[in-house]
Design a protein that fits this description.
Distance between the termini: 82 Å
Number of domains: 1
Helix content: 55-70%
Shape: elongated
Number of strands: 0
Largest sheet: none
Radius of gyration: 22 Å
Strand content: under 5%
Length: about 140
């Protein structure tokens, strides 16, 4: 017992390595571009009145947006692509009179852009767009 007090102190365990940042991975940029392109296509299809095809693209985009948003600090481009997807989805829900669900999708974008730093004119525009979507949902629910 007396000799154990003279033993060297145990070496501390090495600190665990932080998990890799998905935004720094090679797949992140191309996936962001793929989602942005899907959003453009879905928007064009909606404009042409091809709602079912647009809905299919929006549904296909959800897992991509979820994967992009796993990053602790997503890039602005990834956040915009995910936001655009939610905005398209909210617009479809609003058109289908699913006001509560549409409001929830718009609220996701309000939360994204309200807390984004640094604030820019583009992020302020996106925040206003989401707030306007919520106001429209509230207006229609009150009718």
């Amino acid at each position: 017992m007396l000799l154990s007090g003279c033993a060297p102190a145990p070496t501390p365990a090495p600190a665990p390595l932080p998990p890799p940042d998905p935004a720094a991975e090679a797949w992140y940029g191309p996936l962001t571009g793929q989602l942005a392109e899907m959003n453009r296509q879905a928007g064009a299809l909606l404009h042409e009145g091809k709602n079912d095809q647009a809905a299919a693209l929006i549904t296909q985009g959800q897992p991509l947006a979820n994967r992009l948003l796993t990053a602790p600090h997503p890039t602005l481009a990834a956040m915009e692509a995910a936001s655009d997807l939610d905005h398209l989805y909210a617009g479809m829900l609003l058109g289908n009179k699913n006001y509560g669900w549409a409001r929830l999708a718009f609220q996701k974008n309000v939360s994204r852009w309200k807390h984004w730093t640094p604030q820019t004119p583009e992020t302020a525009r996106r925040l206003k767009l989401a707030q306007d979507g919520i106001a429209e949902c509230d207006r229609r629910m009150g009718q």
